[in-house]
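Suppose a colleague, Dr. K., hands you the sequence of a protein chain of 69 amino acids and asks what its three-dimensional shape might be. Before reaching for any lab equipment, you can write down a predicted structure in token form. Begin with the sequence itself:
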Amino acid sequence: MLTGLNTATTYVGVSIAPLIGRAGLRWAGAHRLGPIGALLIARSLIAVDTAHVVIRRHRANETAAAHAA
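The predicted structure, expressed as tokens, is then:
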């Protein structure tokens, strides 16, 4: 079931990508694609780092609670 759902989601994403790309080119113009791409990469790196910090804090709290008990 999950494999089929993953395949369907990938198919929809690949099908929609040209439409989103065309709309992005019309909205921002080709000369702004580089900075927009860099901004998206920076935002994803911030999200990854934030998730890493949250996971480490959660594990530290679990370890502290286990030692206290």
